[in-house]
Amino acid sequence: MLQSMNHIHVLLKYFEAIIKSVLKELWAVGKGGSQVSPKRSHQLEALQELHAYMSAAQLKEITLTMLRLPEMSLTTQKSEKSPKKGKQLSLYGQILVQLLTDSYQRQPHQGELLCTEHIKALGILMSASASEDLEKVFLQALQSEPVYAHAVSVEVQVYCLNQGSETSLAIVSMLIKHCRTHLLQFELWCLSCSIEKRLRKNTERFLPLINVYLQCRDQYSFTRPSTVVSAVLPVLRKALWKELSGVFQDTEASHEITVKLQVLSKLLPSSQSKGLRKLMDQLPAALEKAGNNESWTVADAISRVLEDSEELHSWRRSLLSACMRGLAVMYNSSKDESKQDVERPVLLRLEELLSLVEEVDPDDWYSLVKAGLKYRYRDEAFLKVLNTAIQLLYKKESSISQRLVKLSKLHMMVTHHSLFLSAMLRSREEDGTNIQTREALVDILLTVVKLDPSVCESSHLAVLLGAYGATLSTVDQKILLLLQLYEKNNQSLINSRAFRFWVIKEPNSIPPIASLTERHAGGSTCMINDSISCTLSTYKLKHALAQVVLDVQDLGLLLYTGMRWLGQFETKLEVSIVPYIVLVWIRFQEVQESLYRDESVKNLNDLYDPCFLLQLFSELTRPECLVACHKFVEVNALGLTVAALSSYDSNMRAAAYFVLASFRSHLEGARFREQKQLLYLMDAVQNGIRQQNLRFTFSLTLYIARVAQQMLKPEEHMYTKINRFLLSHQYLDLRKVPGFFQLFYSFDFEHKIERDWVLRLLGEGLRDKHCYQLYDYQRIFHVILSFFNSPLCDEGSQNHILEVLQNAARVTRAAYELIQDHSLLTWILHILEKRFLENKLLNRIISLVHTLWLTNAGSKRESKKPQENRKLLPIQLVNEFLYVLIALVKLIRANLDQAKLAQFFSTFSSVLGYRALVVRAFKEMSRFTVNDSVLSNKDILLLLHKWGIMEKDLQLQEDVQNLAQKYQIKELLKNIKEKSKSQTSSHHRTQKRRKTEEDSMTADLNVSELEKCREDLNAIFVYWEPVFPALPTKHPEELLKSADLADEAVSLTCASAYIVTKWLVKSMVEHSLNMQNVSLTLRWLQNCILPHPVVVQEVLRDETLKNNIFKLYVRVCEASSGAVEHLKELCLFSSIMLHLMDAQGLTNNSCHELVKTLCQTAVTEEDVNKKAVSVFLTSVYIGDIWLGAQEPDMLINHVKLICSSTDDKLNDDEMETDKQGEETIVPLCRTLFSAALGH
């Protein structure tokens, strides 16, 4: 009634009194001061009646106290009159079960266990009560904390197996999955009498458990005797085979069927057995059913069984046939592409089987091709597999190809499809999927044309030219290669009218050739069939062709292509002269290999193919053609041609010079307003050339292109300025940036425009070492570095200067000389000393430092040469980078660009790692080094504080803040106050608040970037060495004061080491495990933490940290179980755990010294099996003692089980045995067993 009226708080005092009295009674029972009375006390009666109304927090203390009670207090022996002997719950046990089950029903996902005693008590209660609700509580506890599987006794597993309910068997699954002793116990249970009959009777219930066992079985084979492991499979096969072999009769897919198939795949008999033969007869028919992908698990297992058999090839042929039929059924039954997740795995299998068999049934092949092209014409995955299949099946030496559908028919099926034109031609709205489909179709056409050149027809050229976008994208390059194959197969493009009317198109549109010719041909009649035929006069045709080409060019794309020209087109030009046209083909070595390399260009669709454009321009500028010179300049065709003069390829430059000469002759006869200025510009450029086929620097070509564009804009200020400069010079000095000082130091009213123009030119023009030398010769870097800190330098100019430096940093020589000759890192430090830097500027500086480091240390860092032969950067240079990065730490903010934050942490960890390498090399050469430790306590705490803000870790922020206040770390406190001020002031700045919110949303989305930052931060911390100061002894009168200072420093170092250890362990427990970082962290713990008892004690006082250390240890054990390369890390971790156990005094048991010796020998052991077994036994012991057991019960149980399983009963001749090395565990277990008995 009170609860319905929301007045339950009236009874709070009464509830508190009940709890106090119950706790008092339980403490008395726990100490053994009083016996368990069969009669309920008043307080227990009140608890049973009213606990449903008490809060979870109030009941938690009672529950945990009851769990700590001894076993004799929770259970009692059944009376002699009872039909079943054994234990039953006592009064306290009944109340505890009631509390636990009710708590689980209230909060099923918030169970909490704190130590081994709790889980042991739960196991005892569950065994005695046979309560299904308590089983659910126990299962939920194990699922939330799997490490407690080590604390569950083997008797609990036996009880659960005998119980046989779904929940109890799920408990056994958790136990065998996370504990090797329980895995061994389960195997011995399977080998006991009458189990076979029980499994056969309860197959459905036991299958999930057996599936888990079979998945774990092969991973930890060295932890059990091979005789036991090999004896289990025949028992399971005999018990389950009849039920499992009939699984293919079920038509509907379900989870139960999937489990059956997984179990069946692990229980297959030998290749000679009748059961396997029957299964092989049934399986292909099952694979043909649509959507039955799970059956392929069994097919793969049969292939492994037949691996050394002569029947393997015929089996694969039947699988290939079933795979093709199954795909055809899927395509015919599901005509849309909604089931791609089901089809993709089958397509991958088809590709794999084709590569192994290389022969198919002609009918199956035709059915698949027909259904696939009919219903999956736009499916990139199908088209790729089809292309692979054609390559494999239609080889010239293949006899099967004569019986398959002819290539000419297959080619017709592809090209005459209703979707062919829409898939091949471009549209404005096309997405990435259509581009991939087009590329896959072009691949098929390429393959077919190579295998059967007779399919080439002139009618195809119109479509291929319509699909060609003249860009550097892979698909356009493949189309170009396809056109070349048509040329080689006597389908001349020159004779094709389609080519004569074909124009370069905007990549995102398809200007129809008919409409273009109609628009420019003066009303001439045009007809379009498979090939294009038009009747135009020669004069009008030439004029129309040139005008159309220039009209439909993408201006933005031409400008971008000209700007990004770096001479890095790694192609050779193959020039063939034919009447009236120059054909330039790219020798296409590797289609998949990019023909152009520039890190700033993410999409090659954004760049025109210069090889094609130059030959196009050479055609347009022939003497008999009329060229719209104004248009040629306006669309940047002239700029792109000039940019080609910076190419490293002499043929490319020669082609560009040819086009420029032809254009100049047309320009002389042209009549438009800017003709004289453009002609004078070309004369000035020509007069500056002192040798034949001279290569320009990219900066100069960009300048010329910009000036040419500027000539068409007389209304702008730069028009007058540039014309004045050109008129005062007869030629361009190719050793300098033209007009730099006049523009940079201009005193006109529009001086900002002029400076902005020349700085933008410098930034976009610096591409290689020749550009850098040009700037350095003119002392441009000295000028812009000095100007950056001037009050006259606005934000725009600063950004342009940083862009110049960023591009220079990518050039190896420039990156080194800017630091050595211009003190660039010192210059950056000076900028960072400013009171506040905007995010945009800070992002640019981080990117600059990152690029400088990568360019200077990239090749040296990744060198695989021996240590003595490697060239290392000077340690002074590395230290400079380190000082800059430490200064940057103070300015790091959470709303910075995520990519730049990732660059910062990556650079920081890389510099520290490289410095450690240099110091190690110096020590090996006996050279003197100073300041081995370069990161101070304040730096580390500041890093942690910044990371806490970035990751929104309030607990970490609070810990660092408390530490800063306790030791009065001024820099850190200042940073914390600034953060608080910025948060307060942000409420009064609407624009900044919105920007911060947007940045925060972006940060939340970039989880992968944050993960990279975390891994790099982990690496940064492990390069920090806590330094504990020594007391000076020279002046006794100052000893006391020095001692106080030293004590404070020791305390701060100790607290810093503790908080770093806490973060490192927590980070690796809560996130994906990176074994390289784990190895570095373990070595840091061994070298920097364990030698200092003060830090060790601080670490061990934190129970949460202790639990996390054990969780990490368990994760490393699981990661190392199947990987020999990680055993070294596990040995190190085990020795660290034993050291921490010594520090806690957990050594008073029968096996400690023996296990410690075992761990020490494992470190130096060369035999992999012995090493693995020694580390495993050590880990079992550590799991026992760390979780609070007085004796290593689980280790002793494991030892007993192994010793008992190696008697003569299991070692008969019929048992399969593995290598003798895997039996290493037996003698070691006997030694441990003897030690335990002796104790």
TrEMBL record:
<dbReference type="Pfam" id="PF16201">
    <property type="entry name" value="NopRA1"/>
</dbReference>
<dbReference type="GO" id="GO:0000466">
    <property type="term" value="P:maturation of 5.8S rRNA from tricistronic rRNA transcript (SSU-rRNA, 5.8S rRNA, LSU-rRNA)"/>
</dbReference>
<dbReference type="GO" id="GO:0005730">
    <property type="term" value="C:nucleolus"/>
</dbReference>
<feature type="region of interest" description="Disordered">
    <location>
        <begin position="978"/>
        <end position="1001"/>
    </location>
</feature>
<dbReference type="GO" id="GO:0000463">
    <property type="term" value="P:maturation of LSU-rRNA from tricistronic rRNA transcript (SSU-rRNA, 5.8S rRNA, LSU-rRNA)"/>
</dbReference>
<protein>
    <recommendedName>
        <fullName>URB1 C-terminal domain-containing protein</fullName>
    </recommendedName>
</protein>
<dbReference type="InterPro" id="IPR039844">
    <property type="entry name" value="URB1"/>
</dbReference>
<feature type="domain" description="URB1 C-terminal">
    <location>
        <begin position="638"/>
        <end position="827"/>
    </location>
</feature>
<dbReference type="InterPro" id="IPR032436">
    <property type="entry name" value="URB1_C"/>
</dbReference>
